[in-house]
Specification:
The mean pLDDT is 88. The chain has eight helices and five strands. By secondary structure, the protein is α+β, with helices and mostly antiparallel strands.
Length: 218
């Protein structure tokens, strides 16, 4: 059984995370089975429990499976919940800054500056959300090529820019304003609209659109 687990890990390491089946993903999370029940069988039983439960009361359903204790049940539930949270922003419609805040608020608690580009469809649905630059506690170096790469790949019609201020000061710096104008100019050449640039802190946000700071002549 140890050889099976090792072989699976080696295959996934060589071929990437798109390679394993759903059951094999669970095997990687579980790590091992018991003397009475191999890890493969536990994984398949957990998949059945997921399908039958509709996502409800999964911990209780897992604990009814022989060989699954609280640790394994919580580990799988945590992985499922993380995946759900990471995917929940896709296709969400953004009409105003408040619509995007739930999907970027985690960056407000980072100790270094994170610059995020959110690609949107013509219907203002989120297509992707990516960290395009990391900085120190004061700034991040922004490259337009990195900012718009995913938007171009996704054939997005618009983007919303966002970054956090670890200092807690939500007002944009002069560098923030100049960077935003430079990115707006680059977006114009690509035929992509910059709908907003949002600065977030732990307690508040600043919208360039709401303050008429998106265009150089604003």
């Amino acid at each position: 059984m140890g050889k099976t687990k090792l072989d699976l890990r080696e295959r996934v390491f060589a071929r990437g995370m798109n390679y394993p089946s759903d059951a094999e993903l669970l095997m990687l999370i579980l790590g091992s089975g018991t003397k009475a029940l191999p890890v493969e069988e536990i994984a398949y039983k957990m998949l059945d429990a997921i399908d039958l439960s509709g996502g409800q009361n999964l911990i209780d359903a897992f604990l009814k499976i022989p060989g699954v204790g609280m640790g394994k049940a919580l580990a799988v539930c945590a992985a499922i919940e993380l995946g759900r949270r990471k995917a929940s922003h896709l296709n969400a419609v953004v009409n105003q800054p408040q619509d995007l805040l739930p999907f970027i608020k985690q960056y407000a608690f980072k100790n270094s500056e994170h610059f995020i580009a959110v690609s949107l469809s013509g219907a203002r649905e989120i297509l992707s959300q990516n960290i395009v630059a990391l900085g120190n506690s004061n700034s991040a170096i922004i490259n337009p090529r990195e900012v718009f790469f995913d938007a171009v790949q996704a054939r997005a019609s618009a983007v919303i820019l966002a970054h956090n201020h670890p200092s807690g000061i939500v007002s944009p710096s002069q560098e923030d304003i100049e960077t935003t104008r430079r990115l707006c100019s680059a977006a114009d050449l690509l035929g992509i609209s910059v709908l907003d640039h949002i600065i977030i802190t732990k307690n508040e946000y600043f919208s360039f659109k709401e303050h008429n700071l998106l265009k150089e002549d604003a």
